[in-house]
Design a protein that fits this description.
709 residues; alpha+beta; ABC transporter transmembrane region fold; Rossmann fold; six-stranded antiparallel beta sheet; six-stranded mixed beta sheet
Length: 709
């Protein structure tokens, strides 16, 4: 759970909300337990003859002296009892005496009967008055008890009671509102009072439950927001090699799927993990107060449950990691096919793609079934263990009750408490599996956060604006997870202000070579020097701020046109943005749009043509005013009019700048100052168009097959 513990570090700054949430959970659990504890006095009223007054007084006397009296239990029909039986039923018979208590030390024993109590000059023989006197007498004061032993002998015993318990005063005040007679009116009023107390406790508990769950959700959402912020902060600073090996969809899955699983785990911690254990604690305390042995017997069932929870948690974490990886793979496939929907439809491959996606979906489903099986097994297994332990406890309690050592009302109250404890334990059954799911998701999120980002080298050099040349010195580069070098021993010097076309067959290394200039990747051997400074030792900001990039697959964000043009310089004014658009020949189509520069372009620029998108990208580069321009010429999706305007914009903008163009058109090549010819990662030749036609067979072939057409 190390990863999920790190998540809780994001929760810590919200300690005030956490404390308030815990308080609400504490109050809710306490009131929930009170609802069940209140069942005991309710049953005392409904079942026993002594009522609330006698029950409360017996409890206080038991606390002060150690005497546990038999409750009053007299049948409704006195006519069937003899005078001796009635007299015996109304006496105070000692059910048990606690060892080493004041009563035990005084000589009182089980089955003794208290005939009367004398305090000072007053002697009392009525059962209820005796109990009340033993409650009210000050601590340490002696009373004289007239006792009849179980063998029929009489004896006088002096008893000194301990201080009354702290709740005595409050209990006596509450009992004043309840009449002491045992008639129907008394029972009705007592029941109404208890139900009103239960209703009030339930209403307050519902308010506490709302506060606890609302605060838990707020804490969870804010925690996920901070996690995503940190993950995004690092993700956009990761080297290109990370995305090359992991893929964009895997990264997106961590932001969406994994963060949702973590949020669920946080809600579990701040919900069930706090609420249910607190409720169990109060319920166990109440159950212990009624019968400690039986409660302890039930709690023994927790030990095997803990072992099972741990085993299920490990299985759940492994299964969840596999499922999340499959989610990433499915998203990658979905993204590829939907972005390439034109190809899918054009080649009539809908059926093939449906089958392919079905296979991926089936694999994900199988792994989800594994997670569901573990999740579904945890609850029933723990419930079975809990019910087994509770059943053993209830059988034991039934034996105790039938043996006369437990009152009927206490038995039913204890059964209700233990059943509620088992239910709360069942709710905790899926706690560990859910935390295991959240931990697996947290591992993936923190893997993203902890991946080393691009950083400046120690003692980084601040590059000045390019003024002399860009040198490729013995450059060799191999992509991660590849054994074949993409570039080998590239040696070339490009002078400042020079326009260089880079040509070659597909896979020759053209894009790779130009990707090394802004340090998207770092070469394994050799170096790139700008004005004699190795860019490996340069700060990223001083290098990339003087580079403008226009890619073949134009990257346009789902935002306004003004935002996309000003992306390279966010501080740019609207006038500067419009001026850049004019130089890129984009202003003419922008002003025809309904909202002009405030027009929202569609996702991936879907509302604009390929030529319009490239002109926006050129405008973005123009606004940046770079010393180095890298332009990957589009091969398709551009009409002749747009092509002419793009060519003109590039030609005008490249004046006085060092420009690298991956060329696909003859017109671009002819206008270049120099041409670099690549093949299989090697620089095979360089020179002007005419020179290369004469001396380079590969260039001549490219010209005949590709450029001349």
């Amino acid at each position: 759970m190390d990863s999920f513990r790190r998540v809780l570090g994001y929760v810590k700054p919200q300690y005030k909300a956490v404390a308030l949430s815990i308080f609400c959970a504490l109050m809710g659990a306490m009131l929930f337990s009170l609802s069940f504890v209140a069942m005991l006095p309710l049953m005392k009223v409904l079942i026993n003859e002594e009522g609330l007054h006698g029950w409360v007084n017996r409890g206080i006397v038991r606390h002060r002296s150690g005497i546990n009296f038999e409750p009053l239990s007299v049948p409704d029909d006195f006519s069937k009892l003899t005078e001796l039986q009635v007299s015996h039923a109304e006496k105070l018979e000692i059910k048990s005496v606690k060892l080493k208590s004041a009563a035990y030390e005084a000589g009182l024993r089980e089955r003794d009967e208290i005939q009367s109590v004398t305090a000072g000059s007053n002697s009392i023989s009525d059962r209820e008055q005796i109990l009340r006197k033993l409650v009210e007498i000050p601590g340490g004061e002696a009373v004289v008890l007239a006792v009849e032993r179980s063998d029929g002998t009489a004896e006088t015993i002096e008893l000194r009671l301990e201080e009354p318990p702290f709740y005595t005063g409050l209990a006596q005040k509450l009992l004043r509102f309840i009449p002491q007679d045992q008639g129907t009116d008394f029972k009705r009023k007592s029941i109404i009072l208890i139900i009103v107390i239960l209703l009030a406790a339930t209403l307050i508990r519902c308010v506490m439950r709302f506060g606890q769950e609302y605060l838990a959700n707020r804490i969870g959402f804010r925690t996920i927001m901070w996690l995503r912020r940190d993950a995004y902060r690092n993700a956009i600073r990761l080297p290109m090699s990370y995305f090359g090996t992991r893929g964009i969809s895997d990264t997106m899955s961590r932001f969406v799927q994994d963060s949702n699983r973590i949020n669920s785990g946080i809600n579990t911690v701040l919900g069930k993990m706090i609420r249910e254990p607190i409720a169990i604690l109060f319920l166990v305390i109440a159950a212990f107060a009624i019968n400690a042995k039986m409660t302890l017997l039930v709690l023994v069932g927790v030990l095997p449950a803990a072992v099972i929870i741990g085993m299920l948690g490990k299985k759940m974490r492994k299964a969840t990691k596999r499922t999340l990886s499959s989610w990433s793979f499915m998203l990658a496939n979905l993204q590829d096919r939907l972005l390439g929907i034109r190809v899918v439809k054009g080649y009539h491959c809908e059926n093939h793609e449906e089958q392919h996606f079905g296979q991926i979906n089936a694999k994900l489903l199988k792994q989800q079934f594994q997670v569901a099986k573990i999740d579904a097994a945890s609850g029933p297994m723990l419930e079975a263990l809990g019910m087994t332990a509770a059943s053993v406890g209830m059988i034991f309690a039934a034996r105790v009750m039938t043996g006369g050592h437990m009152e009927t009302s206490e038995f039913f109250a204890l059964v209700a408490l233990l059943a509620t404890i088992a239910e709360s334990g069942r709710k905790l059954g899926d706690l560990w599996p859910r935390l295991s799911i959240a931990n697996a998701a947290a591992e993936r999120i923190f893997e993203l956060i902890d991946t080393p980002a691009e950083t400046n080298p120690p003692d980084a050099v601040e590059l000045g604006r390019l003024s002399r040349n860009v040198e490729f010195r013995n450059l060799t580069f191999t992509y991660p997870n590849s054994e074949v070098p993409a570039l080998q021993n590239i040696q070339a010097v490009v002078n400042a202000g020079e326009t260089v076309a880079v040509v070659g067959p597909n896979g020759s290394g053209k894009t790779t070579l130009l990707s090394l200039i802004p340090k998207f990747y770092s070469p394994q051997e050799g170096a790139i020097l700008i004005d004699g400074q190795d860019i490996a030792r340069a700060s990223l900001s001083s290098l990339r701020e003087q580079i403008g990039i226009v890619t073949q697959n134009t990257i346009i964000f789902h935002d306004t046109i003004a935002y996309n043009i000003g992306y390279g310089r966010p501080e740019s004014s609207r006038e500067e943005i419009v001026a850049a658009a004019r130089r890129a020949y984009a202003h003419e189509f922008i002003e025809q749009l309904a909202h002009q520069y405030d027009t929202i372009v569609g996702e991936q620029g879907s509302t604009l043509s390929g030529g319009q998108l490239q002109r926006l990208a050129i405008a973005r580069a123009i606004l940046r005013d770079p010393a180095i321009l890298i332009f990957d010429e589009a091969m398709s999706q551009i009409d002749s009019e747009s092509e002419a305007k793009i060519q003109k914009a590039i030609m005008e903008f490249s004046q006085g700048r060092t420009t690298f163009i991956i060329a696909h058109r003859l017109s671009t090549i002819i206008r270049s100052d120099r041409i670099l010819v690549l093949d299989k990662g090697h620089l095979v030749s360089e020179g002007t168009h005419q020179t290369l036609l004469e001396k380079c067979s590969l260039y001549r072939k490219l010209y005949e097959v590709q450029f001349a057409c």
